[in-house]
Amino acid sequence: MILNKTNAASTFAKKHLEEKTGLTEFVLLAALLQSLVALSIDAMLPAFPKIGQDLGVTDANDVQLVVMVMFMGFALGQIVYGPLSDSLGRKLPIFIGLVIYLFGSLICIFSESLTMLLNGRFLQGFGIAAPRIVMNAIIRDKFEGRSMARVLSFVMAVFILVPTIAPAIGQGILWLSGWRAIFVMFLLSASTALLWFALRLRETLPAEKRVPLSFRHPMAALVEIMRTRTALCYTICIGLVFSPFIAYLSTAQQVFVGVYGQVELFPAYFAIVALSIGTASLLNSRLVLTFGMYSLAFWSICVLTVLSLGFTVLLQTILPKPPLWGFMVFLIPAFFCLGLVFGNLNALAMQPLGHIAGVGASVIGFLSMLISIPAGIVIGRAFDGTVVPLVTGFGVFGFLVGAVMHWTKRKSSIPSLFTPVQEKRD
Question: Which residue in 90, 49, 92, 41 sits closest to 67, CA to CA?
């Protein structure tokens, strides 16, 4: 029986070597599917004032929920699509997710109230979690070793470009046709991705490797994470550090346009900040080999905390409203630090969960967002026409992350900060 399964798996792998989808096409398709998340968030930012005006929103901070609610749907979707993809195969969950996303887009297009729009955004977030999660499994199915790392690097390179151009796309559509047309663009993009995916990519999980559908695996992973100090603590750190980042996304339009009056150049400033975090993510693959995951993440969060708290003191004393260039001087290095923190914290949280890597990643994503979304809402709704709440949020939550990381290191077997050579083995 084992021999038969081995032969079947070999035949399945050989079949995929013969499929029409080449490496370049696969990378572009994977990048398109995964980048729909960033596109669906960042392209909406320039439209916030128009949305509030058309839907009769009296408190401008309420429009921030257009971002927050989508993250809520995405958080819930993470815990659902992982088990589905292990049981039903990779393609069907992506089909289901994209159809849900399309339905949510239609609701948004025809929304007559903020509540109706938020319902559509929740469905968008829940649906788009499918390609974001399952495409990683497809990459693992099709590639391994250096080939997998190469493909992931290509996908990441394309993925990083999306946040830099998405606000400009949204602003261009807003000028031409209004904010509802942005959701039409989402509808067309997802429809194109769905059709491309259906026609050009074959199923990558053979029937003999599928497991019966059960949500006992996520529950078991949840219990194991709660019992594993390092996994739990670094998951908390991910949630804490992501909180001010979500707040930044939801208030970026209010800051650059409302505070600094940069209506036309808002997409450009947003792109500069996005390139900062993207550059750090790309450099991290090299820096981590020298400094180790823990050291790189810890010292980056320390720099972020000192920078943020120091800038907060300036805002509260001699510089209540910094010039735009001064604010950018803060944002660029701050987001560079975030780019070094995100990936390494995820790796540290996953380190003791290698035997349940797939479902473990889904549970970590879900748990971390249970922290980051409510905290991000608090920071975002504290916006008062200044950058003080956002900068203070980065400082306070950065300090909390550093404290949790330091406590975790002392209570675990992670090597000292001054032994990067040993850390490289982690």
Answer: 41
Residue labelled with tokens 């989808």: 21
pLDDT digits (tens, 9 = 90+) for 218-266: 888 888 888 888 999 999 999 999 999 999 999 999 999 999 999 999 9
Q: pLDDT tens for residues 83-104?
A: 888 888 889 999 999 999 999 9
The domains located in the chain, with CATH, are: 22-203 (1.20.1250.20), 214-426 (1.20.1250.20)
Cβ-based neighbours of 142, under 8 Å, separated by 6 or more: 16, 26, 151, 204
User: Whole-angstrom Cα distance, residue 342 to residue 333?
Assistant: 15
In this predicted structure, the answer to whether residue 423 has a pLDDT above a threshold of 50 is no
Q: Is the pLDDT of residue 16 over 60?
A: no
Q: How many CB atoms lie within 10 A of CB 241?
A: 29
Q: Minimal CA–CA distance to 417: which of 245, 296, 301, 320?
A: 296
pLDDT in tens, 59-78: 989 999 999 999 999 999 98
Measured CA to CA, the distance from residue 83 to residue 16 in angstroms comes to 23
pLDDT over 70 at 422, yes or no: no
**H/E/C letters for each residue in the chain?**
CHHHHHHHHHHHHHHHHCCCCCHHHHHHHHHHHHHHHHHHHHCCHHHHHHHHHHCCCCCHHHHHHHHHHHHHHHHHHHHHHHHHHHHHCCHHHHHHHHHHHHHHHHHHHCCCCHHHHHHHHHHHHHHHHHHHHHHHHHHHHHCCHHHHHHHHHHHHHHHHHHHHHHHHHHHHHHHHHCCHHHHHHHHHHHHHHHHHHHHHCCCCCCHHHCCCCCCHHHHHHHHHHHHCHHHHHHHHHHHHHHHHHHHHHHHHHHHHHHHCCCCCCHHHHHHHHHHHHHHHHHHHHHHHHHHCHHHHHHHHHHHHHHHHHHHHHHHHCCCCCCCHHHHHHHHHHHHHHHHHHHHHHHHHHHHHHHHHHHHHHHHHHHHHHHHHHHHHHHHHHCCCCCCHHHHHHHHHHHHHHHHHHHHHHHHCCCCCCCCHHHHCCC
The residue behind tokens 């916006």 is: 383
pLDDT tens across 284-327, in order?
878 888 888 899 999 999 999 999 999 999 999 888 889 999 99
